[in-house]
Recover the amino acids of this structure.
């Protein structure tokens, strides 16, 4: 995917969209009305590259006009659910971890706004000589923990080993399964019983070698995930580590009061010369929790006192303020807009809707324009014309059902398909989050589907248990909303977890219950393609296969709108996580 056989890849690849790596799991919006916003309906184009050893040398690209000093404030709805790297999978946890935790590789923000995979703790993005079955990384000189002790290959090995421990329940599991098998906890219990994992070798203090069971050409992207960040054995407090991890980054935790505040100060042993990713302009970060999006929006608009030097990782502009924010020219200089990594779908339950013509009729009839308008219009997102996000390597627009030509739906075409299938009047049971906004969205869907010849039965669900309900294999619904984002910017984590037959299980991520042998095989084959361009084309072809079978309804590529205080500079939108990016922020 990003490595050519026998040598490291250092080639630029053009894709449509921003480079993105984010959580693979449902989108955090949960379809309840707190949708982000943006003013553009057209997808942006940029470049994604895999860097060289030279690109992996620090310091990071400087922010023009930035200066050191001062305290940056952050307000957000929730405390970070995890700070232990091995437990980090949600995007806002990953975003704050940029300040504390380093990985073997990471993403360097370029001066032109594009991103590049580079060596973080490693001297480069890794090497493989067998197509991705064996990966070797060499650590940089001078990388240290917050107490000044050197970060070694033994630390990296130990950090991987502890991801197998039973108390690690929330992080990614790619590396664990690749090193052992799908039942990785049975294969290795973790390091706390004194056993080591032979599949990770450390021939010296600077070298780490991963020996996978199969080829994984994109493993250098995988180890960029916060979930594979480093943890020192000497400071490992197991479960307690989640609240106060030991720093390898530019800042360390001074105080963490759960659900109230988090305070960071400089890590004196972080060396910017070793770090091509992180700038560290503020002296301190003060983060407060329990601030709802309506409150934070009001405070950012007012821009008083300490709020002038405040930003928010996660809180978007509240829907009731979207028009005001987008219409106020004075707010424009401190407004961030961008394409997030998430695709919203309306999943068709293929266990219940087995006739392809009926599924095609649902796709044709769906009222994207009406439902998008109810949820913020172009601020809600761009019409989706593929199963993959434009932020994914190899993305190709694929409007097989003329969504862009008829976003309001095509009831006549849908009627004909139903008639051809002998299914006129077929009942569609639609499950939805029972919120005021989604009640309106549901009504728009009802009108459109009934106009196309379906019988429509709405089923409201409690938002707290929504995913539990639709995640059952034997659920009683035909159609339901869901969102997904890739773990790193390739088709593998964008498509395989959602559409592979192996992902059908209670609570698993194949919500549409798709089990297509030809597509399963194509996915298995695509994963093993080392050339990134060729693999991107393979995933694009799989995307087209999925659309051709009308397995579900892609709806929108989610967008984002957020504000920050006028006293801050260098606040940027992070297309990696769809949030505000901290590494260039400074106090004016």
């Amino acid at each position: 995917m990003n490595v050519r056989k026998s040598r490291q890849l250092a080639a630029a690849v053009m894709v449509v969209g921003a480079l993105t790596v984010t959580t693979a799991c449902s989108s955090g919006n949960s379809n309840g009305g707190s949708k982000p916003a943006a003013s553009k309906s057209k997808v942006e184009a940029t470049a994604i590259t895999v860097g060289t050893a030279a690109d992996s040398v620090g310091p990071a690209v400087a922010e023009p006009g930035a200066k050191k000093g001062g305290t940056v404030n952050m307000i957000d709805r929730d405390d970070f659910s995890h700070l232990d790297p091995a437990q980090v999978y949600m995007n806002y946890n990953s975003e704050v971890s940029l300040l504390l935790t380093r990985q073997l590789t990471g993403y360097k923000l370029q001066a032109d706004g594009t991103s590049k995979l580079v060596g973080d703790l490693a001297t480069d993005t890794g090497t493989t000589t067998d197509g991705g079955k064996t990966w070797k990384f060499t650590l940089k000189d001078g990388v240290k923990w917050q107490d000044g002790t050197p970060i070694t290959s033994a630390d990296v090995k130990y950090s991987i080993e502890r991801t197998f421990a039973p108390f690690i329940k929330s992080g990614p599991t790619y590396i664990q399964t690749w090193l052992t098998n799908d039942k990785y906890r049975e294969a290795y219990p973790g390091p706390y019983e004194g056993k080591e994992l032979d599949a990770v070798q450390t021939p010296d203090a600077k070298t780490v070698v991963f020996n996978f069971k199969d080829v994984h050409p994109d493993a250098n992207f995988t180890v960029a995930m916060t979930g594979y960040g480093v943890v020192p054995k000497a400071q490992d407090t197991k479960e307690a580590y989640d609240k106060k991890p030991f720093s390898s980054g530019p800042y360390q935790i001074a105080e963490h009061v759960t659900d109230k505040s988090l305070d960071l100060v400089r890590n004196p042993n972080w060396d910017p010369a070793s770090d091509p990713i992180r700038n560290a302009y503020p002296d301190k970060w003060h983060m407060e929790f329990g601030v709802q999006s309506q409150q934070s929006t009001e405070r950012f608009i007012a821009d008083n006192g300490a709020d002038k030097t405040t930003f928010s990782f996660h809180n978007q502009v509240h829907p009731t303020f979207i028009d005001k924010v987008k219409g106020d020219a004075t707010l424009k200089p401190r407004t961030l807009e961008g394409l997030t990594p998430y695709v919203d779908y309306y999943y068709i339950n293929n266990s219940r809707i087995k006739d392809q013509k009926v599924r095609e009729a649902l796709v044709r009839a769906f009222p994207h324009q009406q439902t998008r308008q109810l949820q913020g219009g172009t601020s809600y997102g761009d019409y989706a014309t593929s199963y993959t996000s434009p932020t994914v390597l190899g993305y190709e627009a694929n409007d097989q059902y003329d969504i862009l030509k008829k976003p309001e739906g095509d009831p006549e075409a849908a009627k004909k398909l139903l008639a051809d299938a002998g299914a006129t009047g077929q009942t569609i049971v639609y499950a939805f989050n029972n919120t005021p906004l989604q009640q309106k969205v549901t009504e728009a869907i009802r009108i459109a589907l009934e106009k196309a010849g379906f019988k429509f039965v709405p089923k409201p669900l409690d938002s707290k248990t929504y995913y539990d309900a639709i995640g059952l294999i034997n659920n009683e619904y035909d159609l339901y909303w869901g969102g997904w984002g890739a773990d790193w910017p390739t088709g593998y984590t964008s498509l395989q977890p959602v559409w592979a037959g192996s992902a059908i299980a209670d609570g698993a991520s194949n919500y549409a219950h798709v089990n297509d042998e030809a597509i399963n095989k194509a996915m298995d084959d695509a994963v093993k393609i080392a050339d990134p361009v060729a693999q991107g084309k393979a995933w694009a072809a799989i995307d087209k296969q999925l659309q051709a079978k009308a397995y579900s309804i892609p709806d929108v590529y989610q967008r984002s709108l957020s504000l920050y205080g006028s006293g801050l500079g260098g606040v940027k939108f992070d297309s990696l996580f769809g949030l505000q990016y901290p590494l260039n922020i400074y106090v004016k």
Remarks:
- The longest strand covers residues 335-348.
- The chain has two domains: 64-285+568-587, 338-560.
- The chain is about 25% helix and 20% strand.
